[in-house]
Structures are given as structure tokens and as C-alpha cells.
Design goal:
The protein is built from six helices and two strands; from the N terminus they run αβαβαααα. By secondary structure, it is mainly alpha-helical. It has a two-stranded parallel sheet with strand order 1-2. Helix 2 links the parallel strand 1 and strand 2.
């Protein structure tokens, strides 16, 4: 479970805020927090957060007229964990291929040489597939990351339609890999 943070863009002061970790992350808790910020003359312009009902509900109660922007990083957390898993599998496949290479080099009889060559070729093919899967997922996610930032390169909030279009395109690319683990995350 992550800890919420307060982030300001272009802060007008260096005032120190009293922020306590609440035991309950309800809309009422967040509403009290936003009201406390207002009392300290810290004026909100917008909210960028996950889709948590507490944080968004509290914000809307205090600032119904201000925009809320989804923090898409939260929505890609499971895909990033899956990427790390694919990376570990690729490294394990590299080690396995190397082990089979060493065994092939130590084989002496024709029968053993043939058996070890087949094992090495299978390990090599598995290694290539795992590296390729990892690389394709990493490439797709790296292309997606800039769309997930709250601000674009012009320092303006990312347009929701552009973000949506980019996310859907990347999801289509990932689905084309026809990997069951990825497809569970992109549904």
C-alpha cells in the first residue's frame, strides 16, 4: 500500500504543512485534509490521483468546480510488475542456455553430443523467446510512459483523449503478443 503525497507545481511559498498519516482514507478524512489546506491559504488548482474513492470524494466535496486528473501510473503497476517478472525469466533463460552450452562443450561421445546439442538448441530457443517477450513489453511500456505524466512536454495537463488513445494503442500492441499473463492485465 502506497503512502499519499502532496505535490505542488510552482509552489508560491515554502510553508511547512502538518500532514499526518491517517488510519482511514475515507472521503471525510480527505475532505478534512483539503479544508485544512484551505485554512492555511494553500489553494488547489486541480487533483491528480489514483481513482481512490476517498481522495477523489474528499476533493470533490471541497472543490466541486476543480478538475481531477487520473494518475495512470497506478493503473499500470501490475504491468510493470509483470515486466519485472519477464526480465527475471529472461535472465534465468540466459543462465540455462549457458549451462547447456557448457554441458554441450563437455560432451564426448556422439550419442551424448547429439543429446546435448538438442538440449542446447531447445534452451537457446527458449532464451530467445523470453528475451523477445521481455523486450517487446518493455518497449511498449516505455512508449507509454510519457502519456502517463500529469503534464506534457509543454508543461500543460495531458489531454485525456490523447492519453486514452495512446493507452489503447499500447494495449492493442501488448494483446498482439498473445500472452495470457499480459492479456489478463490489459482487459
Amino acid at each position: 500500500m502506497g503512502c499519499p503525497i502532496l505535490m505542488t507545481i510552482d509552489p508560491k511559498s515554502t510553508a511547512i504543512l502538518k500532514i499526518e498519516l491517517a488510519s482511514v482514507s475515507s472521503a471525510e478524512t480527505w475532505q478534512n485534509h483539503y479544508e485544512e489546506l484551505e485554512l492555511n491559504q494553500l489553494i488547489a488548482k486541480a487533483l491528480a490521483s489514483d481513482r481512490g474513492k476517498g481522495i477523489t470524494g474528499g476533493f470533490k466535496a471541497v472543490h466541486p468546480q476543480l478538475p481531477w486528473y487520473s494518475d495512470h501510473f497506478h493503473e499500470f503497476k501490475k504491468l510493470l510488475k509483470l515486466l519485472k517478472k519477464f526480465e527475471k525469466q529472461a535472465y534465468a533463460a540466459i543462465d540455462n542456455e549457458y549451462d547447456h552450452w557448457c554441458k554441450l562443450n563437455n560432451a564426448r561421445s556422439d550419442a551424448n553430443l547429439k543429446k546435448r546439442r538438442e538440449q542446447y538448441e531447445q534452451a537457446s530457443q527458449d532464451c530467445l523467446e523470453k528475451i523477445e517477450l521481455y523486450q517487446q513489453v518493455e518497449d511498449a511500456l516505455l512508449l507509454q510512459i510519457p502519456s502517463l505524466f500529469f503534464l506534457n512536454s509543454k508543461k500543460r495537463p495531458n489531454c485525456s483523449q490523447t492519453v486514452r488513445d495512446n493507452i489503447l494503442t499500447i494495449m492493442e500492441w501488448l494483446e498482439e503478443l498473445q500472452n495470457e499473463q499480459i492479456n489478463k492485465q490489459t482487459e
